[in-house]
Design a protein that fits this description.
Blueprint (H helix, E strand, L loop, with lengths): L1 E5 L3 H8 L4 E5 L2 H7 L3 H11 L4 E4 L5 H12 L5 E6 L2 H12 L4 E6 L2 H10 L3 E4 L1 H6 L4 H14 L5 E4 L5 H9 L4 E4 L1 H8 L2 H15 L2
Parallel strand pairs: 1-2, 1-8, 2-3, 3-4, 4-5, 5-6, 6-7, 7-8
Helix pairs in contact: 1-3, 4-5
This protein binds erythose-4-phosphate.
Erythose-4-phosphate binds next to helix 7.
Length: 212
């Protein structure tokens, strides 16, 4: 499973990217709004930090706006992938952008059917929001499992991004079930790195070294 960071914060993207395991970045309007910065400028800086798919989301809900915004965002850097919500207009836009050679990430996916339709429309990635499914009293990992199984069964090229990751076990389970990618907030990445026995082990080694 490849690891993307779910962030629009340049400092934390850099800090994570410097550790070497970050293969891509996902942003969304809420994450970008938190930064109070020009979106295009933020995207340019992210593309300079990480050499991999960088998801940038359209705001418009009608087909024409989606295509216009997608073309503007795609012109920023060849690695930019356009995030489009799965709606009727969204699927139409995914199809058009695929024909134009522009990669898309079908976002706000909450059912296996939405994922399958987006893949068949030509999405390069689909993003089931597993944490939000859990928040809503359903099983986000079961949804992820369904999508991964269906995509495997039909050898679909579309990659699955486990999104809306809330804690380290979401990442473990996503990897276990064969999700191609997980996009993870930096706070959860830090929890994935940390283990109390690693800290205790370092402390013990240093203590023993001092007493040699
Ligand atoms: C994915 O691409 C989204 O940006 C993200 O994972 C949403 O997560 P949230 O439910 O924590 O906002």
């Amino acid at each position: 499973m490849r690891i993307f960071i779910d962030s629009a914060n340049i400092e934390e993207i850099k800090e994570a990217a410097d550790m070497g395991f970050i293969a891509g970045v996902t942003t969304n309007p809420s994450l970008v709004a938190k930064e109070h910065r020009d979106y295009h400028q933020v995207l340019k800086e992210i593309c300079a930090l990480v050499d991999g798919p960088i998801s940038a989301e359209v705001i418009g809900l009608d087909y024409e706006s989606m295509i216009r915004e997608a073309q503007e965002l795609a012109a920023i850097h060849p690695n930019v992938v356009i995030k489009i919500p799965v709606t009727e207009n969204g699927l139409r836009a995914i199809h058009t952008l695929n024909l134009k050679g522009i990669k898309t990430n079908a976002t706000l996916v909450f059912s296996a059917n939405q994922a399958l339709l987006a893949a068949r429309s030509g999405a390069s990635f689909v993003s089931p929001f597993i944490g939000r499914v859990d928040d809503n009293g359903n099983d986000g990992l079961a949804l992820l499992h369904d999508i991964v199984t269906i995509f495997d069964q039909y050898l679909l090229d579309t990659e699955v991004i486990a999104a809306s990751i809330r804690h380290p076990m979401h990442a473990v389970e996503a990897a276990r079930m064969g999700s191609h990618i997980a996009t993870i907030p930096f706070s959860v990445i830090k929890l994935m790195i940390k283990h109390p026995l690693t800290d205790a082990g370092i402390e013990k080694f240093l203590q023993d070294w001092k007493n040699k």
